[in-house]
């Protein structure tokens, strides 16, 4: 087969892969970015449905931190429109705006035990955290039994991590909200999340790299415990063997085993992919309406108690990005998380429970709403390749081979910012292994 050479190959053009490829290219590495789909972004991509730009999974992008740093380093344009207010809560069909008082303001209006819960957040900020075995639900129950408070915390867990409160360790939950980004700032892209990945891919090409779509990797070659090449079925044609000293994989450690082989990765690594990783599922409802279902609420609305406790939040996309929908239409996305999210469940039954929650929260929903799509993100296409607190390391036992993405997040992190951080860590290690200095930070980390 034909053989070509690059300095680095990035397999998978999801959020982590696009960030990794852009960083490698910015560091002067001739980089090839490939994906088996015909679009960029993977589970954070965008498709057109009846004229609407519909995001497949992730919708919110976080300015600042490593995410924005990648764009600055490679010279790509990042367009994020931040809604104001960005976040509200919807409790008993009443909007609670927490811009000034934050979570403390919300909790104080729900329970007399608010100070007890907030004290634990204060302790977490100083590094005093529960151990990794106690769930968020069990931790919270030690300080309050208020059902609405528990519903709010469950929906925060579900919206950010695609996990129920009894599935995510309290340590991971508190780490995110006290030490990570915690979606303090976020926005939407007027082209859909695809717009961000397109900008990074164009930067890769501008910096002497290439992007091959509809081009799955069929094998990652390893010789003497070092990665040597990737075999790629390029656009349905004859396979191409791409030699490279660096390979970064954005398909998750479980899929990596199938491309590299169990022997090369070793029994311990393979066992971790089976026993440590815990994929998490959610259900995505893409909704259009002629009538504004969320008037004067341009961001994300997190729910309290709902009929079945499945619906966790809903975003008003066209309030800040009207380009996402045809003229005269409003566009929203709602998320529900099944019970369990990290185990087997009946997809059809869970979809209907989510719809019943929507009908309860929005009277007349069936008459007002047009359903563009309903997606169950699970199994080989999960909302998260592993839940927060159950991640593997970015490094692999094979020299020159790293993983990025939502199965190798740093502890307690979430969202596309977490994927960007994994890319930074992997690229810095890859450059260091070649004696190349890491890229200088351009923005303050958050």
What does this structure look like?
β2 (8-11), α1 (15-26) and β3 (31-34) form a beta-alpha-beta unit. The termini are far apart. The protein has a seven-stranded mixed beta sheet with strand order 7-6-14-15-16-13-17. The protein has a five-stranded parallel beta sheet with strand order 8-3-2-12-18, with helices on one face. A four-stranded mixed beta sheet has the order 1-11-10-9. It has helices spanning 15-26, 65-74, 102-108, 114-125, 136-141, 147-161, 170-179, 194-206, 253-260, 262-265, 267-275, 347-361, 365-368, 415-433; strands at 2-5, 8-11, 31-34, 46-49, 52-55, 87-91, 94-97, 210-212, 217-223, 226-233, 239-243, 246-249, 282-289, 300-303, 311-316, 330-336, 369-377, 401-403. The protein has 446 residues and is an alpha/beta fold. It contains 14 helices and 18 strands. The model has no long low-confidence stretch (mean pLDDT 95). The chain is globular and about 65 Å long.
Number of strands: 18
C-alpha-based Rg, rounded: 22 Å
Uncertain runs with pLDDT below 50, 5 residues or more?
none
* Percent in strands: 15-25%
Q: Provide the structure class.
A: alpha/beta
Distance between the termini: 46 Å
- Count of DSSP-assigned helices: 14
**Mean pLDDT over the full residue set:** 95
Shape: globular
Structure described in brief:
This protein has 446 residues and is an alpha/beta fold. It has helices at residues 15-26, 65-74, 102-108, 114-125, 136-141, 147-161, 170-179, 194-206, 253-260, 262-265, 267-275, 347-361, 365-368, 415-433; strands spanning 2-5, 8-11, 31-34, 46-49, 52-55, 87-91, 94-97, 210-212, 217-223, 226-233, 239-243, 246-249, 282-289, 300-303, 311-316, 330-336, 369-377, 401-403. The protein is globular, with a radius of gyration of 22 Å.
């Amino acid at each position: 087969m034909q053989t070509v050479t690059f300095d680095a190959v990035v397999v998978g053009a999801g959020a982590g892969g696009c960030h990794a490829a852009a960083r490698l290219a910015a560091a002067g590495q001739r980089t090839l970015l490939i994906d088996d789909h015909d679009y960029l972004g993977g589970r954070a991509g965008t498709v057109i449905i009846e004229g609407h730009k519909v995001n497949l999974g992730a919708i919110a992008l976080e300015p600042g931190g490593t995410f924005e740093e990648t764009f600055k380093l490679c010279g790509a344009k990042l367009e994020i429109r931040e809604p104001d207010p960005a976040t509200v809560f919807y409790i008993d069909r009443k909007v609670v705006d927490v811009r000034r008082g934050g979570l403390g303001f919300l909790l104080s209006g729900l329970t007399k035990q608010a100070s007890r819960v907030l004290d634990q957040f204060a302790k977490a900020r100083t590094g005093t955290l529960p151990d990794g075995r106690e769930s968020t639900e069990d931790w919270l129950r030690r300080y309050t039994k208020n059902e609405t408070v528990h519903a709010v915390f469950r929906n925060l867990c579900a919206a950010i991590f695609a996990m129920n409160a009894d599935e995510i360790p309290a340590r991971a939950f508190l780490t995110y909200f006290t030490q990570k980004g915690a979606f303090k700032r976020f926005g939407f892209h007027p082209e859909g999340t695809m717009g961000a990945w397109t900008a990074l891919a164009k930067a890769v090409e501008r910096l002497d790299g290439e992007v091959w779509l509809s081009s799955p990797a069929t094998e990652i070659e390893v010789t003497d415990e070092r990665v040597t090449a990737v075999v790629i079925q390029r656009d349905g044609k004859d396979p191409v063997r791409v030699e490279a000293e660096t390979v970064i994989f954005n398909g998750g450690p479980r899929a990596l085993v199938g491309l590299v082989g169990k022997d090369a990765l070793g029994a311990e690594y393979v066992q971790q992919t089976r026993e440590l990783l815990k994929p998490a599922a959610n259900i995505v409802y893409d909704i259009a309406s002629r009538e504004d279902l969320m008037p004067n609420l341009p961001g994300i609305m997190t729910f309290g108690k709902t009929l079945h406790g499945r619906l966790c939040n809903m975003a008003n996309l066209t309030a800040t990005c009207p380009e996402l929908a045809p003229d005269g239409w409003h566009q929203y996305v709602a998320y529900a998380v099944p019970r369990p999210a990290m185990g087997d469940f009946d997809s059809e039954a869970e979809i209907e429970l989510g719809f019943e929650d929507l009908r309860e929260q929005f009277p007349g929903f069936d008459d007002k709403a047009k359903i563009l799509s309903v997606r169950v993100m699970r199994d080989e296409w999960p909302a998260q390749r592993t839940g927060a607190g159950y991640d593997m390391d970015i490094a692999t036992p094979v020299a020159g081979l790293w993983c990025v993405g939502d199965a190798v997040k740093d502890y307690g992190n979430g969202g596309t910012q977490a994927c960007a951080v994994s890319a930074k860590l992997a690229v810095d290690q890859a450059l260091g292994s070649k004696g190349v200095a890491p890229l200088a930070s351009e923005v303050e980390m958050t």
